[in-house]
Amino acid sequence: MENEKTFQPIRYFEEAGFWLLSTENTSYLFGRASDGRLQHLYWGETLSDPDDFAALGLETQTAPSGDYDDIAVRLQFKGSLPVEEYPAWGDFLYNEPCLKATFADGVRDLHLVYASHSQETGPEGLPLLKVTLKDTLYPLEVDLFHRVVPGLDLLERWSVVRNTGSSPIDLETVLSAGWHLPTRNQGSYRLTHLTGRWFADSRVRRALLPDGKTTLESRRNITSAEANPFFALDWWDPENGGASEETGEVWFGALGWSGSWKITLERASEPERVYVAGGINDFDFRWQLAPGEEFVTPPFTAGFTPKGFGQASRNLHRYQLDYLLPRAHANKPRKVVYNSWEAAFFDFNEAKQFEMAERAARLGVELFVIDDGWFGHRFSDRVSLGDWYVSPEKFPNGLGPLIRRVNELGMDFGIWVEPESVNADSDLYRQHPDWIYQFPGRPHNEVRRARILNLAKPEVVAYLYDCLDRLLGENNISYIKWDFNRPITEPGWLDAPPERQREMYVRHVRAVYDLVDRLRAKYPAVVWEACSSGGARLDLGTMRHFDQTWPSDNTDPFDRLFIQEGYSLAYAPKTMVAWVTDSNGSRDINNQALNLPFRFHSAMTGALGLGDDLTRYTPEREQAVIEFVREYKEIRPIVQEGALYRLLSPRSGPIAALQYVLPDRSEAVVFVFRHTEHYWQAATRIRLQGLDPARRYRVTGLKAGQEIKVSGQSLMSLGILPELSGHFASTLVKLKAV
User: Fold this and answer.
1) Contact 697, 737 (CB under 8 A)
2) Are 258 and 542 in contact (CB under 8 A)?
C-alpha cells in the first residue's frame, strides 16, 4: 500500500473526469465521458501514477450516435462499444442490462448520464462513493454505490433506483452491478463456480468460459443447491495453464441475496472481453416504482487478487468475519452443538430429551438443540407446521423444565423452526387458507408435505413475529435454527393489484431479513443459524443476517470433504456447521465403515456439532468423543479465526489436506485425509503455507508420540510427511511457534 499519509481509497480526478478506487493491492478505474455516460476503464493490479492513464490510452470515449453501420464509426470502435459502468437498456446495448424500465407513456429505453457524486464514511468506517445518474428525459435517477474494503482488495457495489416524477415506473430488470474484466489475447478466461443438488451441495466446477452468455441462477426464490451466487474467473492459456490455489490472477465475486438471483457472464473473443452482471433475477420479475419511491438492490461484492483462488477465498472469509456477519456474535466462538434430529427424528418426548441432555453434557457439548417435532401435534412431517405452540403430548409442562435442566448442566438451549412453511393439516392453514402462495384452481405442489406462506402479506409477517417473539420471550432460548425445506411453486398473490403481484419474490426475502433483524434487536443474545434442505440458502445475504449456516443434509464425512471444499471457496469456515453422525449404525450414508477420527476430523474443519444417538454409545466410545471435543475446543480459535489454505483438494487424488493459520502466525493446524491406500502409492509430502519463515515451530501429530521443532521456512519448502495407514485414515497436525 502507499504511505498511510497519502493513501486515498477513493480519488476523483476532475479534469480527466474519472474515479480511482484503491485497495492495498488493486485499482479500479471508471470515468465520465463527454456525453455524461459512466464508462469502466480498468480493474486489476495497482496503478500508481494517474498521469500515465491518458498517455497509455486509458480514457473515456463518447458512445456513437446515429448510424452505427457507418464505416468510420465501426473503425473507431473496432466492432465493440465503450463499456458502461452500469449499463441500462437502450441505444446499442445488446448485452445484459443492469436496468430496464417502462415509463407511464410506454417508452422503455433509458439514457443515464452523470448528475453528481459524493464521498462519505460508510458502515464499519469503510470509504463509500456515491455517483448519481439521471435519465436525460424522464424522472428517474440511479445512485451507484461503491464501498471500498482496502485491506481485503474488495469492492462492494449496489444501486438505488428512484422515481422523481408523478407517474409510476415499471422496473423489469434491476441488477446490483456490472463488472468488466481486462481485455486479453492468446487465451481464455476460465470460470469456477458451485453447483449441486440436495445431498450434493456446493460442488466445485471449473471450465473455460464459452463464447456468448453463461448464466448462473436460481428461479426458486431460495439461493438453491443447484447453483450458488459466486463466481471466480482466471486467465488460462495452453502454455501456462491458469491460476492455482496460491498463484495467478483471479477475479471473483459473490452476491448478497437469498431469493431468486442471476449472474450472467458474457464473453466476446478476439480480443477476449468478459462482462459479469448480477443481482435479483429478472425472471417473472416486476416492480412498480411509485412516485417518490426507491428500490434498493442487494450488494454484489467482488475483488481481484494476483495470488490465486486461495487468497480470493481468504479475502472473502475475512470480509465476512470483520464486516458482514452480525456484530453481536461475529467475534465469539461457535459453540459445540448437539442436535438429536438424526438420532430421534420425530420420536422424542421430555423424558428422552432429558436423558440425551445428560449424555451430551458429559461429552463437553455447549449447546443442546431440539429439532423438528417439538410443536403442535407434530409426530410426522404431515401435520402442524405453522402451529408454533409447544406440543402438549411431548412436553406437558412446556419447555421450561427441559431448558432449566439443560442450563443446570452447563449448556445453552436451542430450538428449530420453519416459519415460512405450513402443512395443510394444521390449525393455521384451517384458519387462513388464503395465507399461502397459490393460483386458485391449480393443484398445490408440496415438498415435505408443506406449502409456503405468503410473506408479502403484512398480516402473515405479523403472525410469525408474534409466534417467535412469544417463543423467545417465554423461554431461555440461546439459539434458533431457521429452516426452509422447499423452493417456491405457484407464486400467486392474486389479492394484490395486478401490477404488484410479481413483487412477492422480493417482498418475501425482505420479510425474512426483517423478521430476523427485528428479533435479533429484541433478543441480542440469540445465535441464528440458516438452513434450507441443507445448503440451499447459502449466500452473503444470509451471512448478513444469520451467524452460521448448515451446508448440507449430507453428513457423510467423506462426502463432506467435497461439499465443505466448495463451501470454503466463498464462505468462512467459522460459519460452516459440521456434524459427526452415525446415520446407519456403524456405517455411513454410502455404506462405508468410517472410523471415528475420520468423522471428527472432517467435522472439526468448521463449527463442530454432534448428531449421534448418544444412548448407543459404549463407555469406550464416549471417552473417545470426550477427547475429540476437548481437542476441538483447544484448536477452535485457529479453525474459526485463522486463514484457510487448501493444500490438497479431495478432487485431485486420494489425499486431501487443509491448513488453518492464526493471523499472527503463532499457531497452525493441518488436517490430512486419505480415503484409499494402495501398496504401490508413495507417501505424499505436503508443503505448508502461511507460516513465518523466520520462526521455529513445535510440530506434533506427524507420528504417534513424536514431537519435532522445525523452521517455518522448512515446513513451507520441504513440507511434512504425516503417517497415515489404511483406507479412510486421517490425522491432525498441530504447530506452535517456540
Assistant:
1) yes
2) yes
Q: How far apart are CA 560 and CA 578, in angstroms?
A: 8
Q: pLDDT tens across 404-439, in order?
A: 999 999 999 999 999 999 999 999 999 999 999 999
Q: What is the mean pLDDT of the chain?
A: 94
Alpha-helical regions (H) of 523-618: 540-545, 557-570, 596-603
C-alpha grid cell, residue 145: 454505490
Q: Which three cell numbers stand for residue 129?
A: 462513493
Determine the straight-line distance between the first and last CA of the chain, rounded to whole angstroms: 31
pLDDT tens, position by position, 59-86: 676 655 555 455 454 444 444 556 899 9
Q: Which three cell numbers stand for residue 192?
A: 469456477
Q: Judge whether 199 and 534 are in contact, CB under 8 Å.
A: yes
What's the one-letter identity of residue 540?
A: L
How far is residue 451's CA from residue 547's CA, in Å, rounded to a whole number?
27
Per the omega criterion (within 30 degrees of 0), is the bond before 271 cis? yes
What average pLDDT does the segment 649-655 reach? 96
114-118 contacts at long range (C-beta below 8 A, 24 or more positions apart): 114/32, 114/36, 114/37, 114/38, 115/141, 117/12, 117/19
Number of helices followed by number of strands (H, E) in the chain:
14, 36
Phi, psi of 455 (to 5 degrees): -80, 0
β-bridge mates for residue 127, sequence order: 121
433 DSSP 8-state letter: G
Describe the crossing of helices 458-474 and 504-522 by its angle, rounded to 10 degrees: 20
Catalytically active residues, by annotation: 483, 553
- Region at 592 (left for phi over 0; alpha for psi -120 to 50; beta for the rest): beta
> Helix H segments across 143-271?
none
Angle at 131 between CA 127 and CA 132, to 5 degrees: 145
> pTM for this structure?
0.96
Nearest residue to 387 via CA among 464, 280, 329:
464
The total of other beta-carbon atoms located within 10 Å of residue 357's CB is 25
Instruction: Take residue 654 and report the three cell numbers written for it.
Output: 486420494
Strands (E), 465-598: 479-482, 527-530, 548-549, 577-580
Residue 67 CB-density burial (10 A; 0-12 exposed, 13-18 middle, 19+ buried): exposed
Considering the segment(s) 10-324 as one domain, its CATH architecture is: Distorted Sandwich (2.70)
Alpha-carbon distance 580 to 363, whole Å?
13
- Is the pLDDT at 55 greater than 90? The verdict is no
Q: Are 251 and 233 in contact (CB under 8 A)?
A: yes
Cβ burial, residue 671 (10 Å; 0-12/13-18/19+): buried
Structural domain boundaries in the chain: 10-324, 647-737
Per-residue pLDDT tens over the stretch 146-168? 999 999 999 999 999 999 999 99
The dihedral sign for the CA sequence 584, 590, 591, 593 = negative
Q: pLDDT digits over 601-614, tens only? A: 999 999 999 999 99
- Cα dihedral 549, 550, 556, 560 sign: negative
| Inter-residue contact 571 to 259 (CB < 8 Å) | no
Cβ neighbors of 542 (< 8 A, separation 6 or more) are 223, 258, 530, 549
Asked if residue 153 lies in contact with residue 305, where contact means CB atoms within 8 angstroms, the answer is yes
Instruction: Kindly list the distances between the CA atom of residue 99 and the CA atoms of 37, 172, 173, 221, 574, in Å, as whole numbers in the listed order.
Output: 14, 8, 5, 20, 36
Q: How crowded is residue 23: how many other Cβ atoms within 10 Å of its Cβ?
A: 22
Cα 295 off chain centre by = 23
Q: What's the CATH architecture for 647-737?
A: Sandwich (2.60)
